[in-house]
Design a protein that fits this description.
The chain has about 375 residues and is an alpha/beta fold. The chain is built from 18 helices and 8 strands. The chain has an 8-stranded mixed beta sheet, sandwiched between helices. Helix 15 links the parallel strand 6 and strand 7.
C-alpha cells in the first residue's frame, strides 16, 4: 500500500484552472482523509456553493460546519474521524483580521466604517486569494484539524495565489500611500501640505468625480493603519512560511481536455517560479474505457445486432454515438498514460467522468475511493 496524499501533511492545497472539477476533487479528497481517520476540514472559495450542495449542506460560511456522519454512513462510508466544511468570506476574513490587529476599539470602529476600507477588503486585486490563505492560516494555527484541504480560486497563473499575501502588503507599503501617511505620523493631523495638495486635486479632479470627502477618507483609511502595518507584514510572513512548509502539499487538479493538457507544463513552471512544486497530480473527468481500439469494429457489429431491424438512420446515429464515446475514452487513456510517463515522480490519481454531474454525496462517495486506492 502506497503512502496516502495526507501522510505527514497538514495542508493539501488543490490548485488548477477553472472547469476541471477542482471543488469536487477537493471534497472527495477530504472525504477520503476523514474515512481514513484524519480530522479533516475542507475549505472552498467556490462562489457557486457547489461544495455545500455536494456535502448535503444547505449552505456554508466563515464558520466550520460538521458533515453528518450518519448521512455519509448510509451511503456506505464510515467516517473514522470528523469532517468539516467552510467557505471563507472575503469581507468577514478581512474584518476578523482587523479585529485582531486594531490597537484600540476606537481605531477598529473607525476602520470598519471607512468607505475606502469597505471597498479595499472586497475589490482589491488579490483580495480573494489573500482571504483564502489568511483563513487557512487562521484555522491551521488552532491545531483543531489533522488535515486542511483548501480548494483554491480558479487561476490560470499559479503565482497569483502564492503571491497574494505579498501583493496585499506591497500595496500597503507602496510609496504613494506612505506619502499620504507621513504628515499624519508627524503631526497626527492633516498637514498643510496634504490640505493644499488635496484642495487642488479635489477641485480639479477627485472633487468633481467623487465628492470632496474622498481624499480625506483615503487619508483616514491610511491613518487608521498606523499600528497595524507591522501586524499585516508579520501575518503575511507567517502565511508565506506555511505555504513553503513541508507540512503542505500542492495537489494539481487537471483534466484530459486539450487546453488543460497544454497548461500543465506552464503551470509547473509557474509553481517553480514561486518556489513551489506539485506533490501530486489528479486527472479528473476521465471517461471509463469501453473497449480496446482493436475492438471498435466488433463493438459496432455487436451494437448493430443488439439493435436489430429498424430505422437505418436511427440505428446509425446510436452506433456512431457509442463509437464516439469509446474513442473518447481511448483518447483519455492515452492522455493519462502520457502524463504518467512525463510526471513519473508524482503520484497520479484518476477520477472517472460520472454519468451525472458530481453535485451530491453519492458522487463524492464514488470519487473518494480513488484517493484510497493506489495511485498510478
Amino acid at each position: 500500500m502506497s503512502t496516502p496524499l495526507w501522510h505527514d501533511r497538514r495542508v493539501l492545497l488543490c490548485v488548477g484552472s477553472g472547469g476541471v472539477g477542482k471543488t469536487t476533487a477537493s471534497a472527495a479528497l477530504a472525504l477520503a482523509a476523514a474515512a481514513a481517520g484524519k480530522r479533516t476540514l475542507v475549505m472552498t472559495i467556490d462562489p457557486a456553493r457547489r461544495l455545500a450542495h455536494a456535502l448535503g449542506l444547505d449552505g456554508m460560511g466563515n464558520v466550520e460546519v460538521e458533515i453528518d456522519a450518519d448521512v455519509v454512513g448510509k451511503l456506505g462510508v464510515e467516517l473514522k474521524a470528523p469532517l468539516w466544511a467552510m467557505m471563507p468570506d472575503v469581507k468577514r476574513t478581512f474584518d476578523d483580521l482587523i479585529n485582531r490587529l486594531a490597537p484600540t476599539e476606537e481605531r477598529r470602529q473607525a476602520f470598519m466604517n471607512n468607505r475606502i476600507y469597505q471597498k479595499f477588503s472586497t475589490v482589491l486585486a488579490g483580495s480573494l486569494e489573500y482571504a483564502a490563505v489568511e483563513k487557512l492560516y487562521e484555522v491551521y494555527v488552532t491545531d483543531r484539524y489533522d488535515l486542511i484541504v483548501l480548494d483554491t480560486p480558479p487561476i490560470q497563473n499559479a503565482v497569483e495565489f502564492f503571491d497574494a499575501p505579498k501583493r496585499v502588503t506591497d500595496f500597503l507599503d507602496h510609496g504613494a500611500l506612505q506619502w499620504f501617511l507621513k504628515p499624519y505620523v508627524a503631526a497626527n493631523r492633516l498637514s498643510k501640505r496634504i490640505v493644499d495638495f488635496g484642495s487642488r486635486i479635489m477641485t480639479n479632479t477627485l472633487g468633481r468625480v467623487a465628492g470632496g470627502d474622498i481624499l480625506r477618507e483615503i487619508a483616514d483609511f491610511l491613518m487608521n493603519f498606523q499600528g497595524m502595518y507591522d501586524g499585516f507584514r508579520d501575518r503575511s510572513k507567517h502565511v508565506q512560511e506555511l505555504l513553503g512548509s513541508d507540512k503542505l502539499a500542492v495537489v494539481h487538479v487537471t483534466s484530459t481536455q486539450k487546453n488543460q493538457l497544454a497548461l500543465l507544463p506552464r503551470f509547473r513552471q509557474q509553481l517553480q517560479a514561486s518556489k513551489m512544486q506539485a506533490d501530486a497530480l489528479v486527472v479528473n473527468r476521465v471517461n471509463p474505457l469501453i473497449c480496446e481500439e482493436s475492438e471498435l469494429d466488433t463493438l459496432a457489429e455487436k451494437l448493430a445486432a443488439d439493435l436489430g431491424e429498424g430505422d437505418e438512420k436511427s440505428r446509425g446515429a446510436v452506433i456512431k454515438a457509442a463509437l464516439d464515446e469509446a474513442r473518447h475514452a481511448l483518447s483519455d487513456r492515452r492522455s493519462v498514460e502520457r502524463m504518467r510517463v512525463e510526471y513519473a515522480k508524482l503520484p497520479l490519481y484518476v477520477l472517472p467522468e460520472l454519468r451525472l454531474d458530481a453535485h451530491d454525496l453519492d458522487a463524492l462517495v464514488e470519487l473518494h475511493r480513488h484517493f484510497l486506492a493506489e495511485p498510478l
